[in-house]
Each structure stands twice: as structure tokens, then as C-alpha cells.
Write a structure and sequence with these properties.
heterodimer; A: 110 residues; mainly beta; three-stranded antiparallel beta sheet; globular; B: 126 residues; seven-stranded mixed beta sheet; four-stranded antiparallel beta sheet
């Protein structure tokens, strides 16, 4: 059971928009910033969004993040086949004094 | 661009100690805005944060693993290490080392893993 809650799966046709939610509590998302990671098959995760809504250089602007209260969302606009991957949210938890991850969401491009 | 590489035995026997080292290149372990972290992922499952070490040697550990973990750093060798004792089959996983950037602003912690190693599979067997 992960501290942060994500839907196990999400899907969309090429070009569509997909939204992945991440629900936490006042000790993690409610107090600290959220990050999103993309993990392609057989590879290490890669940061997609940091500090709630910042994109590292090289990450397409099709990916966007937002946060409200104790929940966060990742939106993929204009879905491409190369976006098929697992997506994880993460944040620092003040109560646990450590990083907590969501269980991951598998995105399928139909 | 900082690069990280895990190294260590790919197999460990039950009840023994798992030991991994992460070697860092292209960057300094003495950076004041970085922690050096370990994260693991059992096959087909999600990510689990194990713990982290700062340049000073200060550590934070996952409470669920705390009694079995030691993470240390050797800045002169550009390495940090993980030791996990009394392993069982449940500790079989891909182990990643990563650089964690960390900032504090308005009482909020902003941290993210911006560089990862390729991962090392460690299998625990009887």
C-alpha cells in the first residue's frame, strides 16, 4: 500500500489528453512539492516534473503538472505512442521524514 | 552532466548483508544542495525509497527498513554505499542510486531525483 495513491492505469488514443491523479495527505503533498517520474520499459525512471509544475530541459511541454491541497495531477496532452510508460508521483513526507512514492500508473496508448 | 553507476554482487544469500556502491562521475558529492539516495524496485512493482546521505554523512532512512540499513559516503572516492542486513527474498529488487536535489522554501521541502544510475538487480536466494 503506497502512501500516495495513483490509479493503476490510464489510456488514450494518439493525440488525446490523459490525466493522472496523485492523492496524498497534509504531511506530504499538502506541505511539500510534488514530482513526477516516467519509467520506460527496462529503464531507470526519469524526472518529468519537479516542484509541482516545473519541466526539466528536454521534457516536451505536452507534459504539465499541477497541485491543489493534498492532490496533484499530471496531464499528457497530445498523447504519442512513445508516452507508453509507467508514471510515478513522489513527495517528501514530514511525518515519515522520507520520500514517498505513488504506486505508479501505467499509461497505454490505444 | 552527473552520471551514477551501481556496482556490487548480483546475488546474496538469505540472512546475509547486501552491499552496493554507487560511483559518481561528472559532479561533486560535496554539493550543498544534493543528497545521495538509494531507491529499489521489485520486479513488476513500484518504487520504494530506501534512504539518503548528505556530504556530511548525515542520513535519513525509510522507517520500514531503518533497523537494517546503513548508507555511507566517501567524497574522496566519489562513492556512496548501501548495506542492507538480514536480507530475505522480499529484498530481491533492482536497486537504483540517484542524486536528490533538495531545497527548502517557506517551510516546504522541494526535492527530486534528477540523475539515476542504470540500476543493479540483486537476487536473494537461500
Amino acid at each position: 500500500q503506497s502512501v500516495l495513491t495513483q490509479p493503476p492505469s490510464a489510456s488514450g488514443a494518439p493525440g488525446q489528453r490523459v490525466t493522472i491523479s496523485c492523492s496524498g495527505s497534509s504531511s506530504n503533498i499538502g506541505s511539500n512539492t510534488v514530482n513526477w517520474y516516467q519509467q520506460l520499459p527496462g529503464t531507470a525512471p526519469k524526472v518529468l516534473i519537479y516542484i509541482d509544475n516545473q519541466r526539466p530541459s528536454g521534457v516536451p511541454d505536452r507534459f504539465s503538472g499541477s497541485k491543489s491541497g493534498t492532490s496533484a495531477s499530471l496531464v499528457i496532452s497530445g498523447l504519442l505512442s512513445e508516452d507508453e510508460a509507467y508514471y510515478y508521483c513522489a513527495a517528501w513526507d514530514d511525518s515519515l521524514t522520507g520520500v514517498v512514492f505513488g504506486g505508479g500508473t501505467k499509461v497505454t496508448v490505444l | 552532466q552527473v552520471q551514477l553507476q551501481e556496482s556490487g554482487p548480483g546475488q546474496v544469500k538469505t540472512s546475509q548483508t547486501l552491499s552496493l556502491t554507487c560511483t559518481v562521475s561528472g559532479g561533486s558529492l560535496n554539493s550543498g544542495d544534493s543528497y545521495w539516495s538509494w531507491i529499489r524496485q521489485p520486479a513488476g512493482k513500484g518504487l520504494e525509497w530506501i534512504g539518503r546521505v548528505f556530504r556530511s554523512g548525515a542520513t535519513n532512512y525509510n522507517p520500514s527498513l531503518e533497523t537494517r540499513i546503513t548508507i555511507s559516503i566517501d567524497t574522496s572516492k566519489r562513492q556512496f554505499s548501501l548495506k542492507l542486513s538480514s536480507v530475505t527474498a522480499a529484498d530481491t529488487a533492482v536497486y537504483y542510486c540517484a542524486r536528490e536535489r533538495a531545497y527548502y522554501y517557506n517551510s516546504a521541502t522541494s526535492n527530486w531525483f534528477d540523475s539515476w544510475g542504470q540500476g543493479a538487480l540483486v537476487t536473494v536466494s537461500p
